[in-house]
Amino acid sequence: MMVSTRGRYALRVMVDLAQHQGQGLTPMKDVAKRQQISLKYLEKILPVLSKHHYISGTQGKGGGYRLTRAPEEYQVGDILRLTEGDLAPVACLEPGAPPCDQRESCPTRSLWCELGRRINEYLDSVTLADLMK
Amino acid sequence: MMVSTRGRYALRVMVDLAQHQGQGLTPMKDVAKRQQISLKYLEKILPVLSKHHYISGTQGKGGGYRLTRAPEEYQVGDILRLTEGDLAPVACLEPGAPPCDQRESCPTRSLWCELGRRINEYLDSVTLADLMK
DNA sequence: ATATAACCAACCAATTTAGTAGGTTTTAAT
DNA sequence: ATTAAAACCTACTAAATTGGTTGGTTATAT
């Protein structure tokens, strides 16, 4: 398993926000109820999306979140890389991974690179708008 | 990360065996030394491959393992699914997963299905022979 | 008899995952 | 001015997974 609940929930929240855009701000309480996800857990996942301006949050009564762009302009891959850290299929391809001393001669390295390339390529080819049906 | 050391090591062992086939039986001690992997850990990973007759092991002095088919006849996907359990990109697509009560309406389900399909398709298109260079 | 190989079972430390608990701060409505 | 509701923040935790280790038993060639 490569994508944990963090990435999956984040994506579902984004789709939910997309489906309710134009209705002003959407409070997470509503999203949590609709998506059957713990509100407290969502609150832990969202900050990274708002810090990178994928969504904007307004505090206080009547506040909530909204998308900052049109759904067509969000690539699923971006949302997942942000919430999951990255989408490498193996540990030795992860960003801060300790350099493997056999990486020059590793017969499987190119397999993992190509797999990672294909995974990212596919997820970048899908947008939030595609997921709205 | 989707493929742990279990699958990665198993694959490297299989490539190693492929590169030394025709030289009789290869003891794991040699493979462990060449691949810089703990022998004891390898011994824990290999049984599933020999139980499914991907390799055959001979005990006793002068014993070791060998491939049971030609390298071209091993799909990388098969080796990984066997050692990793499965290659589902998300928990809700894993074999024994509790059925999600929102799966009919889940807007992201088809994304994960298609991603899983592409991952398995690619890994099944590569054989051990391809990894021998 | 001995060395060497696969095979087997129990344990273990560190990390990750999926949360929970309990707040503080900001803002609109009353 | 008070209150309700929202985002935002920090610390903790139980369970599972990962990546092994320890200590053997069994089988076989020399």
Helix vs. strand class of chain A:
mainly alpha
Quaternary status = homodimer
CATH superfamily of chain A: Winged helix-like DNA-binding domain superfamily/Winged helix DNA-binding domain
- Give the C-level CATH assignment of chain A: Mainly Alpha
Helix content of chain A: 40-55%
Greatest interface: A-B, 35 and 35 residues
Overall shape of chain A: it is elongated
**What is the residue-averaged pLDDT of chain A?**
95
Order of helices and strands of chain A: HHHHEEHHH
How many DSSP H or I helices of chain A?
Answer: 7
CATH fold annotation of chain A: Arc Repressor Mutant, subunit A
Strand order of the largest sheet of chain A: 1-2
List the topology elements.
2 copies of one chain form a homodimer.
Chain A: H1 5-19, H2 28-35, H3 39-45, H4 47-51, E1 55-58, E2 64-67, H5 76-84, H6 109-125, H7 128-131
Antiparallel strand pairs in A: 1-2
Helix pairs in contact in A: 1-5
The first copy, chain A, binds a DNA duplex (30 and 30 nucleotides) through residues 4-6, 25, 27-29, 38, 40-41, 43-44, 46-47, 50, 57-65.
What would your notes on this structure say?
The structure is a homodimer of 133-residue chains. With 133 residues, chain A is mainly alpha-helical. The first copy, chain A, has one domain (5-132): Winged helix-like DNA-binding domain superfamily/Winged helix DNA-binding domain (Arc Repressor Mutant, subunit A), CATH 1.10.10. Chain A contains 7 helices and 2 strands; from the N terminus they run ααααββααα. Chain A has a two-stranded antiparallel ribbon with strand order 1-2. Chain A is elongated, with a radius of gyration of 17 Å. The two termini of chain A are 25 Å apart. The mean pLDDT of chain A is 95. At the A-B interface, helix 1 and helix 6 of A face helix 1 and helix 6 of B.
